[in-house]
Amino acid sequence: MDSVEALAERLRSNPADREAYQSLRALYRSHGDYGSLANLVAGWAAWVGDDHAAAAAYVEVGDVLAQQLGDAAQAEGFYLEALRRDPLCVAGFDALDALLENQGDFDDEVLSALHEISDVARMCLLLRVVQQLSYEDIAQTIQIPAGTAMSHVHRAKRSIRERLKDRGKESSKYCGHEGNVR
Questions:
Q1: Domains (range + CATH), the chain
Q2: What does pTM read for this prediction?
């Protein structure tokens, strides 16, 4: 097996050398060098032209940061980048859901409310709120009419608002509003 230095040099001279990338990735993982692993995979994700492959790599970086390095804040950023590169990346949604599940009762109720709406409505809502896509961009991304995307977002917001309204003023203050959740 090549040394870390030899594999790194191969990648520097030819970023498309998939064998060197995979070998270096396996080497970092086997040695528990998770910081270097995260840097390698993030660099490769930024370089690769395939959005689906990049999204999978960003999810891997997020997993390494959250699970091995204990950095949930940075992990969240990589999960969001995965969704930006491939808005239909199920692993990105799942990883973000898992990360957010550890943020208290209110977050648990929001996630529960999100899971009660349809997959399409949830996707439209998250693309609009998290990714800040226009309705036209959402429509193009998931191949539905823009008006349908808009309806899904508004119905999802209404459903979540209804689900959370019983929490009262104490809970709604976490959304930055007194007495209501927008």
A1: 1-89 (1.25.40.10), 103-182 (1.10.10.10)
A2: 0.54
